[in-house]
TrEMBL record, chain A:
Protein name as it appears in the record: Tripartite tricarboxylate transporter TctB family protein
Regions that span the bilayer: 35-54, 75-94, 100-121, 133-155
Domain annotation DUF1468: ranges: 30-156
Domain of life: Bacteria
UniProt keyword rRNA processing present: no
Keywords: Membrane, Transmembrane, Transmembrane helix
Entry-linked InterPro entries: DUF1468
From TrEMBL, chain B:
The keyword Transmembrane helix is annotated on this UniProt entry: yes
Coiled coil: none
UniProt KW Membrane keyword: yes
Pfam families xrefs: TctA
Transmembrane segments: 12-41, 53-73, 101-124, 136-153, 159-179, 200-218, 258-279, 354-377, 389-406, 472-490
Keywords from the UniProt entry: Membrane, Transmembrane, Transmembrane helix
Organism: Kushneria sinocarnis
Protein name: Putative tricarboxylic transport membrane protein
Domain DUF112: 13-439
């Protein structure tokens, strides 16, 4: 009966029942998500209204672009994305060849680190290239030894 | 005092290792303390909670402090929290006082770290005791307040709210868990995704993706340039450091440390806000503010003591309410979840040993940070020159190992890294904010349970206002934070107009 005491003064005004709300258990999984979704839409509209001018400017100014601009290094960005996706796929495939060994992670990472380092490298000197080569072998090996070997952590 | 028996050599070694690795992360521009904790999480899977936390707290303290190295030597803040260190640290380095500036920063850091640890030790249990009595109504309002405060301190209130709500929305994907009293049905997803998304996105892959992969993608879009190739680290031969130079700075040190701790308590608000606030206060109260920005040691003192004081402060709401004080403590929640420990009002009472050991780890990490930085600062300064084309691929590899191992080998968690990485990258590009998103994502599921269960049992919305005097107080705080944000916004706009005119 706590609601009566809590809302007593409201009830006398007949206002209390205005705030009555019930949740059907079968549909209760949708109750809060719907509320949040509506809140998102409303805040989004408010942003559109209050910041109409800068948003319009950003959308129409072709030289700037919304996500990528003139200064974006499209090659390195796209390269990173391609390497990441290939890395994840290769790691899983290799891991299925030798299950529960972590070899998929080990060999996949070696190739991935080598290629990503080369992608990010700006000056291709002999010294830089040898450091990258060494790092591509040592870093995954160290990680594999510590995680899979020492700590028994599951790796692909 | 049972916890003393658990203090073994490996505990201290892990805290030291954490501090050293953290300094390394902090010292490299673009890599943060949050990233350090996220990337090193897989190392804790094999440890128990106490040893794991020793490592992570070391990383946290080291990561925040390490940011001062490039800030002073190269005018590039290593982490966002050392932005204000550049204002005076770099001019000092240019005058040949680089080493002195760094050592002043190091002493200030340990001061801030220890002050905040003391405040944490005394304040967190009190707050926890208070919040134990909270019902679902107050708990929901606390989360609501946390999201409002963090949105209010964003660059734009509406965008902050939008980012936070988006985080909540994301956290609701998947089933309304039966263990939380839900009906077990899924929502906000397509049925064919059920094998992967039934439980929703796992917390840790999301955090690792947001703080690891997003950084890599943003750097790749910028071309991964080593801006430092032409720079050289110059310590100079100017005035040497001695402790007597900090005489007269006690007020500044204390004030900045308290400010840092307080900002840390505010949910989701990071070190940059702490140091900016402390620096501004030093500007307002200092007897001689004219030298600030031109190489005044007191500027470095204000900035570094406040950003390190953030560490203890940010742990207060985490350990007493279960609400992370900044993004690094948000990742720490993951470490607790991993060990099956719930952080919240009951944490300190139920896990007294862990709580005491955390304090020991925090204090140890501060001393180790001090020793490593003070004795080896000249060597640490070289870390800033480590090329990114070597580091970034290793970071990605560690992120993948961490995400895969969290739930003992689920490949979807690795793909989550990429999904969230791309999403986070797009979010930052269109101007949304990461911090409110993370806090929303972490607190979303709890917010749902508290809200829906309250309505199921009371059947009326007014209970959120009338339940208790604490509920009313929380509403007042929520209103104040919105009012404060609007006030700041209007003030800034007037200033901009005045400047333009």
């Amino acid at each position: 009966m706590s609601q009566v005491t809590n809302g007593g003064w409201l009830m006398s005004n007949g206002l209390y029942s205005l705030f009555d709300i019930s949740v059907d258990f079968d549909q209760s999984h949708l109750f809060f998500p719907r509320l949040v979704s509506w809140a998102l839409v409303i805040v989004f509209l408010l942003i559109l209204i209050t910041r109409a001018r800068p948003i319009l400017q950003a959308l129409t100014d072709r030289s700037r672009g919304v996500i990528f601009d003139r200064h974006t290094d499209r090659f390195r960005f796209a390269g990173t994305m391609v390497l990441l996706v290939s890395y994840f796929i290769a790691m899983q495939a290799l891991g299925q060849l030798w299950p529960y060994t972590g070899y998929g992670f080990l060999f996949g990472s070696m190739v991935f680190i080598l290629l990503l380092s080369l992608l990010y490298l700006h000056e291709r000197t002999r010294r830089n290239l040898s450091v990258i080569g060494l790092n591509a072998v040592i870093a995954p090996l160290m990680a594999w030894l510590i995680l899979a070997g020492l700590f028994n952590i599951t790796l692909p | 005092m049972e916890f003393v028996s658990q203090l073994d050599i490996s505990f201290f070694l892990l805290a030291s290792l954490g501090a050293a690795v953290g300094i390394f992360f902090g010292a490299i521009p673009g890599m943060t303390a949050t990233m350090a904790v996220a990337v090193c999480l897989p190392l804790t899977y094999a440890l128990d909670i106490n040893h794991g936390l020793a490592l992570l707290l070391g990383l946290y303290v080291g990561g925040i402090s390490g940011g001062m190295v490039p800030a002073v030597l190269l005018n590039i803040p290593g982490t966002p929290s050392s932005i204000t260190t550049t204002f005076d640290g770099y001019p000092m380095a240019q005058n040949g006082e680089g080493e002195r500036a760094l050592k002043i920063g190091i002493v200030s850091s340990i001061f801030g770290g220890l002050v905040s640890a003391v405040i944490l030790f005394f304040f967190a249990p009190v707050l926890a005791d208070l919040s134990i009595r909270f019902s679902y109504v107050e708990k929901f309002l606390i989360i609501f307040l946390a999201l409002t405060v963090i949105a209010a301190l964003s660059r734009n209130l509406l965008i902050g709210i939008f980012s936070g709500l988006l985080g909540v929305w994301f956290s609701l994907i998947g089933a309304y868990s039966i263990s939380d009293g839900g009906n077990g049905h899924t929502r906000l997803m397509f049925d064919f995704l059920d094998p992967w998304l039934h439980e929703g996105f796992a917390l840790l892959p999301v955090l690792i993706g947001l703080f690891g992969i997003v950084t890599i993608l943003s750097e790749a879009a910028k071309g991964v340039r080593n801006d430092l190739s032409g720079a050289s680290v110059n310590f100079g031969k100017g005035q040497r450091f001695s402790f007597s130079q900090l005489r007269g700075q006690l007020t500044n040190l204390t004030r900045s440390s308290v400010i840092g701790t307080f900002v840390g308590i505010l949910p989701g608000v990071g070190g940059s806000a702490a140091s900016v606030l402390a620096y501004t206060q030093e500007k307002n109260f200092s007897r001689d503010a004219s030298q600030l920005g031109k190489g005044a040691p007191q500027g470095v003192v204000a900035s570094e003591s406040s950003n390190n004081a953030l560490t203890g402060g940010a742990l207060i709401p985490l350990l007493s309410l279960g609400i992370p004080g900044d993004s690094t403590t948000a990742v720490l929640i993951g470490a607790f979840t991993l060990q099956g420990i719930q952080v919240g009002p009951l944490f300190i009472g139920d896990n007294t040993d862990t709580w005491h050991l955390m304090m020991v780890a925090l204090v140890t990490a501060n001393f180790i940070m001090f020793a490593v930085m003070f004795l080896a600062i000249r060597h640490i300064a070289r870390i800033v020159m480590v090329p990114k084309h070597i580091l970034y691929p290793i970071i990605v590899m560690m992120c993948v190992a961490g995400a895969y191992a969290i739930n003992y080998g689920i490949m979807f968690d690795v793909w989550t890294l990429l999904i969230i990485g791309v999403l986070g990258f797009l979010m930052t590009r269109i101007g949304l904010e990461t911090a409110p998103f993370v806090i929303g994502f972490i607190l979303g599921p709890n917010a749902e349970v508290y809200f829906v269960k309250t309505i199921e049992s009371y059947g009326n919305l007014t209970v959120f206002f009338t339940k208790s005097s604490i509920a009313v107080l929380l509403w007042i705080l929520i209103a104040l934070s919105v009012f404060f944000s609007v006030y700041l916004h209007v003030k800034n706009r007037r200033k901009q107009h005045a400047d333009a005119a």
